Amino acid sequence: MNRTAQIILYILTALIAFVFFVVLLFPLDSVIGYYLGGIEKATKGVYRVSVSEIDASLVFDTQFSNFRVYENGVEIFSVPKLEIGFSLFSLLGETKSLSFEAYFKKGEIDGRFSINNQGINVVDISLDEVNIDDLSFFKYYLEKEKIPIQLKGVLDGSFYVYIDNDPKASEAEINLKILRAHTTPMPIKALNQTIPKLNLSKGKKAVVFDCVLENGRIRLKKFIMPGPDLSMDLSGSARLNRRAAVNNLSFDGKFSLSDKITAEIPMLGDMLAQHKNADGSFPLTIRGSGKKPKIKVGDFQISDFFSF
Description:
19% of the residues lie in helices and 47% in strands.
């Protein structure tokens, strides 16, 4: 079982085991606080949860103020107000169900997930105007993977994921929009250059990402970046094997760069110039595997220049 599943299952098991007994003798918020404190011990110090206040209820949702999650001492999730609800009947069965609402300074996330002995098997989440900066795990994991770029913007949309022991039986549907999307500057070691901040969407126009997973096939229905600095239109598919590795990438589309970007990195503009379409855009293909994709602009393999 993965560590995230262990944490959630530990919390839920603790609640159901004590709900009919300990709560008769002690306040429920004290019981929940005690078991949240036990997460650090249960995960051998990898994860820690802290809250400033708990308003517990057996009938209504339990509220947590200033809910924070740490991985190896680094904060990976923080929300001013979190409400969690659960069904006592589901806690008695093999599969536990949990619903939640997370309220940030601006925007909120609500959803549900279920978990069994194999781990989390259903995640169903909706996002309403959530600032990516409020989702600290994005920054944490990009830095952990040594990817020298950050994505900024406001998230809207939903995603549903069903996880099966057989990855080919898993399902997913992701529909996301990112308003006011932009990136931080990104160094390109091979060119000894740094790509400046890129505006990927402005005003009411949004980056659109629509993707489904079914029968072991990932189908990118739509990936559109309106720009102005970098605009893109991409679609295609890939395969998910039994080890959950992504292979057989087959994505095709086109992209355009603003004059500002090509002026700041003239070497990049010169390399791409001969591959330009009649409409001024550049043809884009992605093949290979998820671990080592081959990205080409025309017949020029640009992925060779993006080793971080």
